[in-house]
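Q: I have two molecules that I believe assemble together. Could you output structure tokens for the complex as a whole instead of separate predictions?
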Amino acid sequence: MKKQFERPYIKKIRAGIPSKFGMSVHNEPVTHIDNNPVPELIKQFGSPLFVISEKTLRETYAIEKRAFQTRYPRIQLAWSYKTNYLDAVCRVFHQEGSWAEVVSGFEYDKALGNNVPGSQIIFNGPYKTEEELRKAIGNDSFIHIDHFDELYAIISIAQNSDKKPKVAIRVNMDTGVYPMWDRFGFNYENGEAWDALNRISLDNNLELVGLHTHIGTYMLSTDAYKTAMTKLADLAARVEKKHNKSLKYIDIGGGFASGNTLKGAYYQGRDIVPGFDEYAEAITSALINSELNPSKLPLLILETGRALVDDAGFLLGTVIANKRLSDGRRSTIVDTGVNILFTSFWYEHEIHPAKSTSDHLEETTLYGPLCMNIDVIREAVAFPLLRKGDNFVIKRVGAYNMTQWMQFITYRPNIVLIDMEGKAHLVREAENLDSVRGNERIPDHLK
Amino acid sequence: MKLKRNIAVSESGFLFDPTGGESYSLNEIGLEIFNLIRDRKTADEISSQITSEYDVARDDFEKYYFDFVGMLRQYKLLEDEE
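A: Yes, here they are, computed for all two components at once.
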């Protein structure tokens, strides 16, 4: 039998300047996803291919739930639709008991379509049309008010409605992290949030049900959550004291980091990202230690998106070609472009071969298939010596890619969900010419 | 095509070029091809030998071979060609 071929390779040894990882690392292959061989998945569903592990979704959900439930008696998770609003993904979380957290009329309708009762939908975001507000009010959904214009729009709707809108305000604040997110909601420090709470509390047509914040995204500091919860609990305690009203919930939002590595970061994401327990400890201790009446503790709502779904998503792809750049550097063209891997603009994604390779790694630039200069998946990665046609797996792509991807130059690919028994289901079909042209109209003079 | 004469290479694929003082590492196939080039084998002969030994088609091998030779040239490990 002939020996396995690996492409020939020569690498200059650079003494004196150690790599940031200290020593060479072996790139472990990812040969299977939940017992499905990667080449088989690609053979059946094509390349590139997004694969979602239902097992990982449910396990991650259980880990987060346990982290909070063991520290605080009343918690509720609300699935952040924008992170991944594939119906199959949403329904897994809803089956686990998650409410829906939506930020547009489109997402709101998607949640209704997933059989989420209106009273379990949280409607966030800076732009809700009057029609959308009326619908949310009619369905008893929780509306998180972003600005005074929205508050007065709701007041006006409520005056002519037999329904009492259930509202909360979104609060922004200084939590000691930079940049401070002050574009959404009412500010805590300058008293705007307190003004809004007083205005709502004095209106008999509105029901003030909660407080909400979302302090940032990919937050590596748990202290910031502690500060945020302390400030929200302070507002809730002041409402309790002045208006004699106990708020039903405090929604601390999301923003927990996943194990991905941010571009330019010195350490690998998986080594520095806090776990659910650490976030939970910071958030619940601040709430429990607050001035709030212990016999009427509010429900703690979490809108975690990224940290719940990122690890469950994999992007399978195929090497198209290997090239040399003018200075001798290796470049490899792969079929997974930035059009479908939007997060490659933020992350240095972990990429693994789908079969075992030798220990030799070559510094490689990974380009996507688009005829566009921006289509770079990794600027420089120690990559095994893959050949044309070889498969690879990009890890932690479950968050944002399947919502922020673009129909650009190529079609968006199939998405499969691997169920708890290891069976693969097609949950979103790849696009074709009809799906792209379907909404186009040609004027008569161009026919 | 001729390699520089004074290049030292070990059995494990460690290569030293005293002219520039640079060191290199080769993988198994890289080392085998390097030795064949040093033995003044032609591209055709090298191709025949490697494709009989390894699971690779001749056409497929050729592009990797020329890529490898390109890197030897890039690293200035080949004698200047006439």
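A: One point stands out. Helices of chain B lie at 28-38, 43-53, 58-74.
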